[in-house]
Amino acid sequence: MALLIVVPAFSGEGSAFYGFYERVGGSPAGILRTAISDPSVILSELFAGNVFVYVLALSAPLAGLFVLAAGLAAVALPALFVLALADGAGPLDPRQHYLAAIVPFLVAATVLGTARLRSRIAFPWR
């Protein structure tokens, strides 16, 4: 809503961030048109090698344990999809601020997943 109403009202034009999405349509409406008319473009962006490396960089510090609470980890998927569709290395650089919408859910899912794992394992020293 902010990109459609607020930004044009104050800048007189569309968001400068639409440039990140030129390959897949350039705007929310363009992305939707591309998803309908040529979904292979969207899929090729989502499954690109740099996206795979990005997901590995996010999951390595958490040892991938967030998959044990997949429902909570899935909350991060929309933000990951938006970043994966963006052009350039910036949004997919794990050292950048773009992952701020993803990491809290992965950490929380790791904590819950680890708790579930711990309850299933019988430790002899307990």
Task: Describe the fold and architecture.
The chain is mostly helical and 126 residues long. It has two domains: 45 residues, no CATH class; 80 residues, no CATH class. Helices cover 56% and strands 0% of the residues. It contains seven helices and no strands. Helix 2 crosses helix 3. The longest helix has 18 residues. The radius of gyration is 18 Å and the shape is elongated.
Helix and strand pattern: HHHHHHH
State Rg. Answer: 18 Å
- Give the overall form: elongated
Report the count of strand segments. Answer: 0
Largest beta-sheet details: none
- Counting H and I runs of at least 4 residues, what is the number of helices? 7
Number of domain units:
2
The poorly predicted ranges are none
The end-to-end span amounts to 53 Å
Sheet-strand content, in percent, reads: under 5%
Average pLDDT taken over every residue: 84
Q: Structural class of the helix and strand makeup?
A: mainly alpha
Considering DSSP H and I runs of 4 or more, what fraction of the residues is helical?
55-70%
